[in-house]
Amino acid sequence: MEMTGLQIFKYLPGAKKTSKANCKECGCPTCMAFALKLAKQNIELSKCPYIENELKEKYSHSIKHPQKTIEIQGHKIGGENVLYRHEKTFINRTLIAIIIDCNCQDYEKQIENISNFEIKGVNELYHIDLIILKNFTTNIKINSKIPTITIEELNNYEIEQIQDKDFNTTKKELITIREKAILEKDDKYSNPTCVFLNPQDDIFTSCAKASYYICKYANMLAIEKYNNEMLSTIIRLRENIYTDPQKPLQVESDLYKFNNPNENSIVFLTTNFALTFFAVANELESLDVPSYLIVIPADGMSVLTAWSAEKFTANIVSSTLNNLDIRNKINTRKIIIPGLLAHMIDELKQAVPDFDFIVGTHEASAIKDFVKQFN
Ligand code: SF4
Q1: Of 177, 130, 190, nearest to 154 (Cα)?
Q2: How close is the Cα of 20 to the center of ligand 1, in Å?
Q3: In total, how many domains does the chain have?
Q4: Any idea what the Cα angle at residue 27 is, between residues 23 and 33, rounded to 5°?
Q5: pLDDT 10s digits, 331-366
Q6: Rounded CA separation 346/77 (Å)
Q7: In terms of domains, do 329 and 359 share one?
Q8: What separation in Å is there between the alpha carbon of 48 and the centre of ligand 1?
Q9: Number of helical H runs and strand E runs in the chain
Q10: Same domain, 88 and 223
Q11: Does residue 57 sit in helix, strand or coil?
Q12: Residue identifier of the C-alpha nearest atom 2 of ligand 1
C-alpha cells in the first residue's frame, strides 16, 4: 500500500519537533507540506536531508509497483495496483488471444474470421487483441488484420503461463499470485499471468471459466476453442470490469437518428449518460415512428444529477442546439425533454425562444405510449 501524507509526516522533523522542523530546505513551507507532496510522488525523497533510514525503506517499498507491465505486440498487460476495482481502478484490460494451429487445413480461414470479428460497444468497436500461432514455420504466409505472435515468441515474455485444467486449481493459483504481488509486493509473483484455457472443455464451461478468470485475475487469456457468442460475452464482461468506476460511461453529444427521420420528425432530448442514452435509444429504435434524439454533453451524468450539478442548464441546451446545427438539420421546432426536468420548461423557453419544449416521460419505458398520444 502507498503511504499517506500523515504516515510520512510521523517520521519527519516537524512531527518529532527537532531543531530542523519546518526548516524549508526542501523548498516546502512545512514538513507537512513536504509529506503531502511526497505521498503524491510530486517531490523527491532526497530533497529533505533529514530523512531517517526507516522512512527511506518504508517509502521505497510503498511506491514499488507490485506487478510488472509487459507490452505484447502493442498491447499492455499487468501493471495492476489493486485487488478490487472499486479501490481505484484496474489498469490494463485482460488481453484476449486466440490460438490458431497452422497445421489445421483451414487455418487461413480461421485467421480471416478472427480478424473480422468485431462487436460494438459504447463509442467503440472491439476486436480480438492477438492471434497466437501454433506450429508456425517461416514458409507460412500469414494474412491477418490483427497482431500475431508465435507460441515460441510468447515464451520469451516475462509472463506466468498457467495451463488451465480444473477450475479450482487455476482459480487458487491466480488469486495467490495476485495477492502476493499486491499485498506483499513479492517480486516472485510480479509477472502478469496468462491462462491457457483447457481446449477439452465445452464452450459453456470455457465461457464460464474465462468470465471468472477475467474478474480474478488473468492478465491474458489464450483461447483455442471458442465461438462468436463466447467471445462477445467475455469481451463485454471485460469492458465492464475494466471501466473506471469513478468515471460514468458516456456517449458523444450528437443528433442521433432512429428509423430514417426526415426534417419534420419528432425530437427528443436527454443527457449523455450511457445508461440513459441506451434506455431511450432502445425505445426509439423499437417504435415504428421516425425520430431524433439530441444528446446534451453532461459529463456522463444522468438527468437529475446533471441538473443538480449544473451540467444540464438552459444555456447548455441552447449552445448544444447551436453546436449541433439543429436549426439547419430539422424543421421541427418542438423538443420533448425528460419528464424529470419539467421544472425547467420556463427557463428553456426563455433561453431558446424559437423552440417549444414539451415535457416527456419520467421513464424511457413510457415513451411508446407517449408518442402514440403525441401523434
Ligand atoms: Fe521538513 Fe523540508 Fe526541512 Fe525536511 S527539509 S525537515 S521536510 S521542512
Answers
A1: 130
A2: 7
A3: 3
A4: 80
A5: 999 999 999 999 999 999 999 999 999 999 999 999
A6: 52
A7: yes
A8: 5
A9: 15, 15
A10: yes
A11: helix
A12: 26
Question: Smallest Cα–Cα separation from 296: which of 328, 265, 335?
Answer: 335
**49 and 75 together in one domain:** no
Q: Of all atoms in ligand 1, which is nearest to the CA of residue 27?
A: 2
Q: Is 31 touching ligand 1 by the criterion CB < 6 Å? A: yes
Residues found in the chain: 375
Residue nearest (by alpha carbon) to ligand 1 atom 3: 23
Ligand 1 atom closest to Cα of 14?
1
Mean pLDDT per block of 10 residues along the chain (375 residues) reads 90 95 96 94 94 93 89 96 86 97 95 94 86 94 94 97 96 97 93 97 97 97 96 94 82 94 94 93 93 95 93 96 95 95 95 96 94 83
Q: Alpha carbon 28 to chain centroid distance?
A: 37
Which residue of 25, 30, 56, 59 sits with most ligand 1 atoms within 8 Å of its CB, as the best mutation to test the pocket?
A: 25
Side chain identity, residue 133: L
Q: Using CA atoms, how far apart are residues 150 and 84, in angstroms rounded to an integer?
A: 32
Distance from residue 184's CA to the centre of ligand 1 (Å):
30
Q: Could you tell me the distance, in angstroms and rounded to a whole number, from the CA of residue 33 to the centre of ligand 1?
A: 9
149 close to ligand 1 (CB < 6 Angstrom): no
Q: What would the pLDDT profile of 13-62 be if each residue is shown by its tens digit? A: 999 999 999 999 999 999 999 999 999 889 999 999 999 999 999 998 88
Q: CATH number of the domain that 185 lies in?
A: 3.20.20.20
Q: Whose CA is nearest to atom 4 of ligand 1?
A: 48
- Structural domain contains residue 332: yes
Q: Of 40, 62, 84, which closes a domain?
A: 62
Place of cell 425547467: 344
DSSP state of 48: -
Question: Would you say the C-alpha torsion 6, 10, 11, 14 has a positive or negative sign?
Answer: positive
CA of 162 to the centre of ligand 1 (A): 48
Assess contact for 167 and 207: CB atoms under 8 A: no
The per-residue pLDDT of the chain, averaged, comes to 94
Separation of alpha carbons 295 and 141, rounded Å: 47
- Ligand 1: nearest atom to the Cα of 21: 6
